[in-house]
Amino acid sequence: MGLIAVKAGVANHIAGERPGEAREALRVIEATSREALTEMRRLLGVLRDEPDLAPPGLADLPDMVERVKSAGVRLEVSVSATDLPDGVGLAVHRIVQEAVTNVVKHAAPAKCRVDVRDERDGVRIEVADDGPGGGVTSGGHGLVGMRERVAMYGGRLEAGPLPRRGFRVMATIPYKAQP
């Protein structure tokens, strides 16, 4: 929803002067809102106990990546984690989603690197950009939500500006490998 709000503001601001860019922003809004509706249906399916409507996980990252790229962020993604439990996969998906949405909101145009990998007894998520950086603000719910997701599994989250430029979110979520 954050990406939709950002792109709607851009489209409204440039509609008269740069209609081509405004149309591209509207295309991103359309695709992102369709995915948000799909995710809401999934959530309702989970609440209704409809097993065919599984929550998003690692397999859904490529679609998210394409939307973010169309929002003007150069994105490099490496995923070497496999066979995560559903809840952990959902947490990873949401952390990456929120972190790259923050890149779009606060750092675009920027280059962003996403790395999701298995480590001993857990998964490590790192999202770093080369934007202007800056401190952590408390104006939104993104970092709070990420902290809550990580805390549910007894993990760790670090978020803050990098020494020269950019911002990094790094999370570790422990889990036991499935037999």
CATH fold category name of the largest domain: Heat Shock Protein 90
The low-confidence runs, each spanning 5 or more residues with pLDDT under 50, are none
- Count of beta strands: 5
**Given this structure, which CATH class of the largest domain is correct?**
Alpha Beta
Name the strands of the widest sheet in spatial order: 1-2-3-5-4
Distance between the termini: 37 Å
Overall geometric form: globular
Tell me roughly what share of residues is in helical segments. Answer: 40-55%
Mean pLDDT: 82
- State which percent range the strand residues make up: 15-25%
Tell me the major beta sheet: 5 strands, mixed
What is the name of the CATH superfamily of the largest domain?
Histidine kinase-like ATPase, C-terminal domain
Count of domains: 2
> How many helices does DSSP assign?
5
Task: Give the helix/strand class.
Answer: alpha+beta
The CATH architecture of the largest domain would be: 2-Layer Sandwich
Computed over alpha carbons, the radius of gyration is 17 Å
Order of SSEs, N→C? HHHEHEEHEE
Characterization of this structure:
With 179 residues, the protein is of the alpha+beta class. The chain has 2 domains: 1-54, no CATH class; 57-179, Heat Shock Protein 90, CATH 3.30.565. It is 47% helix and 21% strand. It contains 5 helices and 5 strands; from the N terminus they run αααβαββαββ. The protein has helices at 2-14, 19-47, 61-70, 86-106, 142-152, and strands at 74-79, 111-119, 122-129, 156-161, 167-174. It has a 5-stranded mixed β-sheet with strand order 1-2-3-5-4, with helices on one face. A hairpin with a 5-residue loop joins strand 4 (156-161) and strand 5. Helix 1 (2-14) packs antiparallel against helix 2 (19-47). It is globular. The N and C termini lie far apart (37 Å). The mean pLDDT is 82.
